[in-house]
Prior knowledge:
Layout (H helix, E strand, L loop, with lengths): L30 H23 L7 H23 L2 H39 L20 H32 L2 H15 L3 H16 L7 H25 L3 H9 L4 H28 L4 H6 L18 H10 L5 H33 L6
Helix pairs in contact: 1-2, 2-3, 3-12, 4-7, 4-9, 4-11, 5-7, 6-7, 7-9, 8-9, 9-12, 11-12
Amino acid sequence: MTATATSVRTPGGAPAPLTNSFTAGKLPKRSSLWVLLASWLVAAAVFGVLQLSGAVNEFNIAGTFFFGTVFYCISIYSLSYFVEGGRMAKDRLVTALVTTAFVLALLPLVSLVVTTLTNGLPAFLTPTFFNSSQRNIVGAGGGALHAIVGTLFITGTATLISVPIGLLAAIYLTEYGRGRLARGITFFVDVMTGIPSIVAGLFAFALFALLFNQPGIRFGLGGAIALSVLMIPVVVRSSEEMLKLVPNELREAAYALGVPKWLTVLKVVLPTSVAGIVTGIMISIARVIGETAPLLIIAGFTSSMNYNLFSERMMTLPVFVYTQYASQGASAQAYIDRAWAGALTLILIVMLLNGIARLIARFFAPKFGR
């Protein structure tokens, strides 16, 4: 029933009395939106009066939306209670609270993206940002090509190390692991999931310093090892959960046809769960691609290009952002702009990886019901 007045005809043909949604026990359509707007206006009026009276120095926009939303939750519950009853009033109140929580959770992300775009676009759109390094640059100019190349090299190598180890460990825990060994692996994977990232950097630094007897060693492969320590537990846990979701009936059907277990895992279990596994891998890459502390310790930082993972320092985007902001030169604004541009580049790479993961999950997910 709509919010406007309606009329129906009785069996005798005479029109029935006009009714509306209020008398019918239902609020008009889009009443929640109008109540929300009215609540914000009331809150804005209150803060406007406070500003005019001198109680506050300036108009509080955040307070207007916050207190307006609180007033909206109270108003929509009260209005719905008197018109629709207690059951619908509770439903509208919970809907308002859930929507408000969603918007509050979304605000930091929107603020982060908008702030990064606003501050990072000036340097991001310069022609030299993607085709030059910071070698011999002490003021404005230069770019982040060396940091982008270092990020791709180190993160790609860490992925090549982590994915086979993590995936094989997940297959063992799901398909073969029983007893104390499986429980021990699960325990240590859970512990590794929560270790601070700087510990991974210290581990890689200590490992290669002892192996090569070089106390001040810095090179890209060490950074890849440090990131793989952080990636492996994420890959293991995500892949294990995806493998557990494969129905046992598929395995039993393969066994009934005489297929050995290793071939069942290879041809049945993995193809069925490949979409979720790839999504978990992309999430693990996004988890480590922004790490700064371990790379600052073992990979170091440099202003020059370096394509060799096994020799010399290698710059990455997180470290580039940190060094540009922490070590500002003569033209401080140029350093800050490059830092924001590096952060924007990092966000775009993560967004691209998540987009690829969604496409893979969409095209490679098993199609049931054919």
